[in-house]
Amino acid sequence: MRVVFFGTPEFAVPSLRALLARHQVAAVVTRPDRPAGRGMALRRSPVAEAADEAGVEVLQPRGARDPGLVGAIQASGADAIVVAAYGRILPPEVLEATPGGGLNVHASLLPRWRGASPIAAAILAGDAATGVSIMRMEEGLDTGPVLLQRRLRVAPDDTTRTLTPRLAELGAEAIAEGLDQLEAGTARFQPQPDEGVTYAPVIGKADGDLTWELPAGEIDRRVRAYDPWPGVRLPIGGHTVRVLEGDALPSWSSDASVRPGDVLAVDARGLEVMAADAPFLVRSVQPPGKRAMAAAEYARGRRDLLAGGAP
């Protein structure tokens, strides 16, 4: 099939490459170049770079309602639109610009985790499995009928950083197969059930600002879900640091004098800090303005922690 591909981040690159290998990509639509780095030089999106390497035309409209976008899609002669993490909601006139409409690579097992951050949401909820859904796009938020799904186990130590590339590869396989079915006339779309609908809201920087009054298991899930962004920030001995890695420890009964945030132990593994219900072992941190380091190394520079200090 001949398609126009919409995508922006690294997650979308495997899908684009799968379509380049098995179908015809008439054009790629991605977000405009953005300033990045210390010099704030303009940087192309990962999808734009992959399209450049393949010699495919790249369109970078300011928004999904750019007046020239529909005309460009129609002029491409594409049979369908494929979307993978483009970053903007497509209006009806764009979705209707090709005979086959729009197909979306969504990183969840719909109808669970519709919305902007399905990978992080699955980790936050402690889901044992997640996956990808290939769905037909419509005006509702991830409400369209599903063509196919692929399932993936969520490991206990998975983070958004580790889970995203696996889901990206799974999505690439699924979208290529979905287009094969469309081309062969064997595609069968199933409406999403009304039961089991959940939503994954947009995550903001402030979501990573935590306190030790949370249960240890909740802190563990947030550390993993918010890696790499927005990261988790917690106070340790009165200094707020970014907690990069850690583990919830077994339930622990203590005397009433131990409070959430108290540093219980410092050893080669890291720092044991009391959460609401159990200790949390902080394994690595990044202090403000400094490099990432093992929590044990960080503690060596904090004599108050080595002495068993508390906030």
Describe what you observe in this structure.
This protein is α/β, with parallel strands linked by helices and 311 residues long. The protein has helices at residues 13-22, 46-54, 69-75, 92-95, 118-124, 160-184, 216-225, 295-300, 303-306, and strands at 2-7, 24-29, 34-36, 41-43, 58-59, 80-84, 102-106, 114-115, 129-136, 146-153, 199-200, 232-236, 239-248, 263-267, 270-274, 279-286, 293-294. Strand 14 and strand 15 (270-274) form a beta hairpin. Helix 1 (13-22) runs parallel beside helix 6 (160-184) and helix 5 (118-124) runs antiparallel to helix 7. The protein is elongated, with a radius of gyration of 23 Å. The model has no long low-confidence stretch (mean pLDDT 94).
Put the structure in a nutshell:
This protein has 311 residues and is an alpha/beta fold. It contains 9 helices and 17 strands. It has a 7-stranded mixed sheet with strand order 5-2-1-6-7-9-10. Strands 12, 13, 14, 15, 16 and 17 form a 6-stranded antiparallel sheet that branches. A two-stranded antiparallel sheet has the order 3-4.
